[in-house]
Every structure is written in structure tokens, then in C-alpha cells.
Inverse folding.
């Protein structure tokens, strides 16, 4: 697969230049776009990690996709990245020494189109373009799972993918010009489905066939071994934030409403939508690995202790 070859070259080059964490007192944490990252956004706003690590400088960055997170980690510009499980596995498979440290969320996710003639994956014409964050993203792997089930060929639509961050994919779907469908997550998924012209072709749950963690946090072996205080503080801060969200619903809604520039009522309906959950478990790892090995997205299989810090 061309995209995987390119990814492998990038990672190898970065591995050759990476020189390990500088062991200063700065902790850099990256997230992406969407409500699946709400605990990270609340943690930042409440200052829970800064409170736990008063002698550290905490830097928060928002990156457009998991490739940017992987590259930043390898270049020693990031300590912890939050992302989907498949892109984490692809980087591990290409030699990146890291493991997952905590789950963060699961949420509805799906492929949305405005074309009434597209009712299933079989209805996509070869010229129909599909927007998603990038090849190797969780959206891409779930689409490949759905293709394997429905079209008996996991990479059947790979040549029709267009890499776009969620806000751009959202805008492109409504423009109805360059793309025919968008594989996305909340709030973009909810906003797209609220328009009567749009409908979902396939959901992530249908593709996967079981529960799975949508977003998990990962860190390098170097950070895990040499920064145990910071590692434990981040895990505890995630847990504390999720408990805070459960016990302080009004303030949580106020914070998210400001961050997303949405009505409080709309945010409330979104984070209480069926399937929106925030937790620290990591689910679905074996299912992702089995599929990705079977369809050559990974070179080899892994046991749970090889992908999750114990």
C-alpha cells in the first residue's frame, strides 16, 4: 500500500534523527479535533495537570491528524499523544517504541453522504471521493473493515480517499463539489446528520462489530521509563477529569459550550448522545490487530502487553 510505504519512510527517517527526550521539566501533550477529546480540553481548562505537576511546564498542542502527532513524538517535540488505536499500531509496527497508557473515549462515528443514490458501499462510483483524516487513521481502518464485509475487499475504496482534517471535511461535504462522503466523529457527525440532505452509509460500530475505544493516549518508552512522576500524573489527571465531568455536568457544559461556540443545550445533547462515553479502559485492541494483520496494514501481530503499558 503506497500510503503505508510513505509512512514507513517518514518514520524511519525520524527514528534516525530522534535523540530521545531532553529530560527537561516540560510536558507536551497533543490532541486533535472533536468532542472525543473533551476530557483533555476540560483537563486543560481546569488546570488539573498543572496542579499535579507544579514544577513542570505543561504545553498543550492541537494537531490536525495522527501523522503529525507521530512525527512530533519522534522528533522529540511531544511527550503524549491522543489518537485512534490503528494509527498508533501502524507506528509501532514501523519501529516506534511506544505503548498506550490510557483510554479516553468512545463515540459514534460514521460515513456520511449527501447523495441519495448512495445507500451502501457498493453504490460509490470510482470517481466518488471520500474525505477522512488520513490513510491509516481509525476512520480509514473502519472503512476498510466495512469494505471487507460488504465488498469482500478491504482496500476497495482506498484510491478514492482524500485526507482532510474534520473541519475541512465538514465544509467540503456541505459544498457538494470535491467530495461525495465524509467519515467523521462528533460534533461534525451530529452536525452533518442534522441536515436532512445527509444520511449515514455505515457506522463505525457496524464496521467493527463490537465496542472499541475511539481515542487513547500513548507515550514513548523513553518517557515511560524516565518520567514516571509525569506519566502517573497524566493518567491520574485523565481519571480525575472524567470523574469531574460526571459530577459537575453544568460547569462541564459551560466549558465545552465556550470552546465549541455552541449552545449549551446542543452540547448537552451531543455529549449525552447514545454511544458517547468517556473512560480510561482500552477496548477493541485485539480486533483491530487481527484485521490489520489479515489485510497487511500491519506486518506482525501483537499481544496486549506489547501495546499497553502494564
Amino acid at each position: 500500500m503506497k500510503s503505508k510505504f510513505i509512512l514507513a519512510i517518514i518514520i524511519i527517517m525520524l527514528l534516525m534523527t530522534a535523540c530521545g527526550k531532553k529530560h527537561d521539566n516540560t510536558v507536551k501533550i497533543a490532541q486533535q479535533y472533536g468532542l472525543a477529546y473533551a476530557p483533555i480540553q476540560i483537563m486543560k481548562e481546569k488546570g488539573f495537570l498543572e496542579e499535579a505537576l507544579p514544577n513542570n511546564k505543561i504545553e498543550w498542542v492541537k494537531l490536525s491528524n495522527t501523522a503529525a502527532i507521530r512525527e512530533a513524538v519522534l522528533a522529540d517535540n511531544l511527550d503524549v499523544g491522543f489518537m485512534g488505536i490503528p494509527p498508533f499500531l501502524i507506528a509501532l509496527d514501523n519501529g516506534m517504541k511506544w505503548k498506550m497508557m490510557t483510554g479516553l473515549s468512545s463515540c459514534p462515528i460514521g460515513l456520511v453522504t449527501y447523495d441519495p443514490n448512495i445507500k451502501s458501499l457498493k453504490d460509490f462510483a470510482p470517481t466518488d471521493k471520500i474525505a477522512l483524516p488520513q490513510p491509516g487513521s481509525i476512520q480509514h481502518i473502519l472503512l476498510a473493515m466495512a469494505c471487507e464485509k460488504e465488498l469482500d475487499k478491504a482496500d476497495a475504496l482506498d484510491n478514492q480517499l482524500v485526507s482532510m482534517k474534520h473541519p475541512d471535511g465538514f465544509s467540503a461535504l456541505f459544498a457538494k463539489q470535491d467530495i461525495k462522503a465524509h467519515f467523521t466523529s462528533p460534533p461534525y457527525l451530529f452536525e452533518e446528520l442534522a441536515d436532512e440532505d445527509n444520511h449515514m452509509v455505515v457506522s463505525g460500530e457496524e464496521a467493527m462489530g463490537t465496542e472499541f475505544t475511539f481515542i487513547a493516549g500513548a507515550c514513548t518508552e523513553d518517557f515511560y521509563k524516565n518520567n514516571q512522576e509525569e506519566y502517573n500524573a497524566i493518567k491520574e489527571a485523565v481519571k480525575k477529569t472524567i470523574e469531574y465531568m460526571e459530577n459537575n455536568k453544568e460547569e462541564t457544559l459551560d466549558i465545552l459550550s465556550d470552546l465549541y461556540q455552541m449552545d449549551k443545550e446542543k452540547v448537552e445533547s451531543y455529549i449525552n448522545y447514545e454511544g458517547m462515553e468517556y473512560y480510561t479502559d482500552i477496548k477493541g485492541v485485539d480486533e483491530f490487530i487481527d484485521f490489520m494483520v489479515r489485510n497487511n496494514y500491519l506486518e506482525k501481530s501483537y499481544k496486549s502487553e506489547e501495546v499497553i503499558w502494564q
Notes: The CA atoms of residues 18 and 75 lie 5 Å apart. Confidence is low (pLDDT under 50) at residues 9-22.
